[in-house]
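Support request from a user on the community tier.

User writes: "When I paste my structure tokens into the form, the page sometimes reloads and wipes my input. The last time it worked, I copied everything first. Here is what I submitted, just in case something in the input itself triggers the reload:"
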């Protein structure tokens, strides 16, 4: 629309100069020309203003009316031959205006416009002949050539433009159809890629240095330090006994759907679902894995409230966390392979999760994890045991983090913390009577699997003193 504005400016300047000239020269033809230029300027400015205030249809109508008037003025008031030539050329452009202004909304509008152009041209020529002695129309041949032939050419132009438009529109339609097909294919590709990423986490691909699943090759691998979290339903076999497969799947999906967000919110990702267990990985501070585990316990409480409201029994989970060196990679054959994580640290995390049943502790972490979190971590922690799990020769100290326990239970564990530490120190220093007394004092306030285990072992060691090789390490022979 800036073209319309500058055209109006030019027309206003020309019209003003012509009006000033006609003030000293009483030629009525020059004055009419000047007025025509002024009206042209007005029409251009009006079109510009209507467009700026978003009256688009009205501005388009004003543009065509201005074109009608200005072109008629050129023919009526101009010099004999040049004005006719300019007028024919201008009207030929006006024939195209519906395609420019109205964007070829209908063929009917183009027909109406061409009919109006033809009638206005004939009337302009007749009025020119009436007003001017030198009108350029002196014989019947002039009438035929200058009055009748141009309107015919306007209609031929319309038909040619119509045919061209049809071919252009067909090409545009074909192009649009191809673009829609391409867009549909891309949408399908994105949907497929998103679906595949549900089976292979994007974080896994990133760890392998890949951006797309198609880039993953057999034997791709990377070794790094990560925190591994295992979570398992306690008493799962008895829980699903008698349930239909559909009900079992529904139970697992509901539970995993409640727990999974806690993992992602703390910068982890689910590596796999193994039956009723979740295996998640955390690349970064082990604090992320611990915070995710605490959030999972809070989510489980909310999930159990919904189950109780529906008359269903609550669920319990055990969570084990270990931090260490793992290898992420692809294994399999040329036809099928899978992404997985390997390493002794993974096996230890699975063993730790299983020990939550033995010690009646919902969340156990290894000493490696707690050491990497650092001092001043702010968690409520107590030593659970020093163990050597099946398949390993080295020992591991287990810790319980009980921040997610119900507040009364949390307070009880805090109250016995001093006596519990005293009992642990005495136990590993072979002062079994002192250790047993400390553990029994604890059990008066709070009793659980950890305290019972230490009390029973202290009592047994009092009855039968251990040899010099005794270290207090509990050797476990079951997975």
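"...and here is what came back when it finally went through:"
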């Amino acid at each position: 629309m800036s073209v319309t504005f500058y055209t109006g400016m030019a027309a206003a300047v020309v019209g003003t100069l012509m009006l000033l000239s006609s003030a000293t020269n009483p030629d009525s033809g020059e004055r009419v020309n000047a007025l025509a230029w002024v009206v042209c300027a007005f029409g251009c400015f009006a079109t510009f203003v209507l467009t700026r205030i978003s009256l688009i249809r009205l501005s388009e109508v004003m543009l065509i009316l201005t074109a009608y008037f200005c072109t008629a003025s050129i023919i009526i008031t101009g010099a004999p031959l040049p004005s006719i030539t300019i007028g024919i050329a201008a009207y030929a452009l006006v024939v195209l205006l519906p395609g420019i202004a109205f964007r070829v909304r209908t063929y009917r509008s183009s027909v109406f416009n061409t009919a109006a152009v033809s009638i206005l041209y004939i009337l302009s020529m007749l009025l020119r002949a009436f007003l001017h002695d030198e009108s350029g129309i002196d014989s019947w041949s002039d009438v035929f050539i200058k009055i009748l032939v141009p309107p015919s050419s306007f209609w031929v132009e319309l038909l040619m433009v119509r045919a061209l438009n049809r071919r252009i529109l067909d090409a545009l339609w074909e192009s649009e159809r191809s673009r829609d097909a391409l867009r549909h294919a891309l949408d399908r590709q994105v949907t497929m890629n998103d679906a595949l990423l549900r089976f292979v986490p994007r974080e896994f691909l990133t760890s392998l240095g890949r951006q797309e699943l198609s880039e993953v090759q057999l034997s791709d691998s990377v070794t790094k330090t990560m925190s591994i979290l295992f979570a398992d339903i306690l008493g799962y076999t008895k829980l699903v006994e008698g349930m239909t497969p559909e009900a079992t799947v529904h139970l697992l999906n509901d539970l995993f759907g409640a727990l999974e967000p806690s993992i992602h919110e703390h910068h982890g990702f689910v590596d796999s679902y193994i039956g009723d267990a979740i295996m998640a990985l955390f690349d970064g501070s082990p604090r992320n894995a611990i915070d995710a585990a605490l959030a999972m316990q809070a989510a489980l409480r909310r999930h159990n409230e919904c189950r109780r409201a529906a008359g269903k029994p609550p669920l319990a989970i055990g969570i084990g966390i270990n931090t260490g060196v793992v290898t992420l990679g692809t294994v399999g054959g040329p036809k099928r392979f899978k992404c997985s994580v390997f390493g002794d640290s993974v096996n230890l995390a699975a063993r730790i999760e299983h020990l939550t049943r033995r010690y009646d502790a919902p969340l156990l972490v290894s000493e490696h994890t707690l050491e990497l979190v650092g001092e001043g971590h702010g968690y409520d922690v107590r030593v659970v045991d020093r163990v050597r799990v099946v398949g390993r020769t080295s020992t591991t100290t287990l810790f319980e983090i009980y921040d997610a326990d119900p507040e009364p239970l949390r307070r009880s564990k805090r109250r016995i913390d001093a006596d519990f530490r005293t009992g642990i120190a005495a136990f590993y220093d072979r002062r079994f009577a002192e250790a047993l007394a400390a553990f029994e004092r604890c059990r008066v306030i709070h009793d659980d699997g950890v305290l019972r285990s230490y009390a029973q072992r202290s009592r047994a060691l009092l009855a039968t003193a251990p040899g010099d090789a005794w270290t207090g390490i509990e050797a476990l022979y079951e997975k």
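Agent notes: The reload is a front-end session timeout and is unrelated to the input. Residues 140-196 form the longest helix (57 residues). The longest strand covers residues 317-332. Escalated to web team.
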